[in-house]
């Protein structure tokens, strides 16, 4: 009964997001079964939030046994199927965030473009205002009711300036908006015979770096292509981040070549944990994501790696281990800043 209430909220929110657009019949039938055949009413968002609250407390009680021991926290990576139907994507995110919470996650992270297919032809139709759009509202409500941080992957954002951005929002365990990161480096590449992608045809790049402060550590956020720019990661480290989180959607050309390599490079160079969160692989999609969401530790070792299909995976972030690696190989205190310098021109 209680679980169906949570799902009920998602249907309401996602239907609102799509206005009059209806579920395709197959998905509609699946959701009808999924939601126990309930008729969707028109109760308001506030009322639904309090219902999620009662539910989430009971979930948190049962999850607390599996909380990480020692000095750190548990990160849950939601590698999810993303379809051409926003309402279905939000329902999937809702279900898998619950699974992550049940697995003891203190911080839950979603993939790049979790509410929209990754493709420049889709961004305009799926774009939302942040934080007043339905995806942001759902993430805020779930964060507050489960009392977890949610790093909400990314969504296409319609800015106040009317332009489109690829944007990640993070909510605190009270549902407060903690940070908004607009993908800084747009994915414009051309690998002949393999893949050409030009985000800049429809998107604007962001012009800020984004650090999230939690009770455990600072987290630097980047989106996908941002991981290829080591300066950004270095600045996050200089500013005290212990974990870098990159929602990302590498593809079948760059994924096998660079996904793991880049993550290990950023982790070892900066002696931080690095997490990447991909959509699940769908061979029939216009853009086939690589999958393999992953966490790498400051030594460069893979802590956890998802397969290709939809899955929630977990990693315990051990803050003492970071200190240990940094004291064993103290590169941060051995920098030759008399020879070189790294600085951000904007704070
Ligand atoms: N999709 C991206 O932004 C980046 C990517 O796929 C790559 O760098 O490769």
UniProtKB/TrEMBL annotation:
CDD domains: nit. Residues 73-319 form the CN hydrolase domain. It comes from the Eukaryota. SUPFAM superfamilies: Carbon-nitrogen hydrolase (SSF56317). Pfam families: CN_hydrolase. Coiled coil: none annotated. It is an enzyme of class 3 (hydrolase). PROSITE patterns: CN_HYDROLASE, UPF0012. Its EC number is 3.5.1.3. This is omega-amidase. InterPro entries: C-N_Hydrolase, C-N_Hydrolase_sf, Nit1/2_C-N_Hydrolase, UPF0012_CS. Keywords: Hydrolase. It catalyses: 2-oxosuccinamate + H2O = oxaloacetate + NH4(+); 2-oxoglutaramate + H2O = 2-oxoglutarate + NH4(+).
């Amino acid at each position: 009964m209680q679980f169906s209430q949570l799902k009920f909220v998602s249907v309401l929110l996602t239907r609102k997001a799509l206005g009059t657009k209806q579920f395709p019949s197959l998905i509609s039938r699946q959701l009808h079964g999924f939601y126990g055949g309930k008729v969707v009413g028109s109760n308001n968002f506030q009322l639904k939030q309090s219902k999620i609250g009662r539910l989430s407390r009971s979930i948190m009680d049962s999850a607390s046994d599996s909380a990480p021991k020692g000095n750190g926290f548990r990160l849950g990576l939601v590698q999810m199927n993303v379809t051409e139907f926003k309402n279905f994507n939000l329902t999937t995110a809702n279900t898998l965030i619950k699974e992550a919470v049940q697995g003891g996650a203190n911080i839950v992270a979603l993939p790049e473009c979790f509410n929209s297919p990754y493709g420049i032809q889709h961004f305009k139709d799926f774009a939302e205002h942040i934080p007043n759009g339905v995806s942001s509202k759902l993430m805020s409500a779930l964060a507050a009711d489960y009392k977890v941080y949610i790093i909400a992957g990314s969504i296409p954002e319609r800015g106040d300036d009317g332009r489109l951005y690829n944007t990640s929002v993070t909510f605190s365990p009270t549902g407060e908006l903690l940070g908004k990161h607009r993908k800084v480096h747009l994915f414009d590449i051309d690998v002949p015979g393999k893949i050409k992608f030009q985000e800049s045809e429809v998107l604007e790049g962001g012009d800020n770096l984004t650090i999230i402060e939690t009770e455990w550590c600072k987290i630097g956020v980047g989106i996908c292509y941002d991981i290829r720019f080591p300066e950004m990661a270095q600045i996050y480290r200089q500013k005290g981040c212990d974990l870098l989180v990159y929602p990302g959607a590498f593809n079948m050309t760059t994924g096998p070549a660079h996904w793991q390599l880049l993550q290990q490079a950023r982790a070892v160079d900066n002696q931080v944990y690095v997490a990447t969160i991909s959509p699940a692989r769908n061979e029939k999609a216009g853009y086939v994501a690589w999958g393999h969401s992953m966490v790498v530790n400051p030594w460069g070792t893979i802590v956890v790696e998802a397969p290709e299909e939809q899955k929630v995976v977990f990693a315990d972030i051990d803050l003492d281990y970071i200190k240990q690696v940094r004291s064993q190989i103290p590169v941060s205190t051995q920098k030759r800043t008399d020879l070189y310098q790294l600085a951000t021109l904007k704070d």
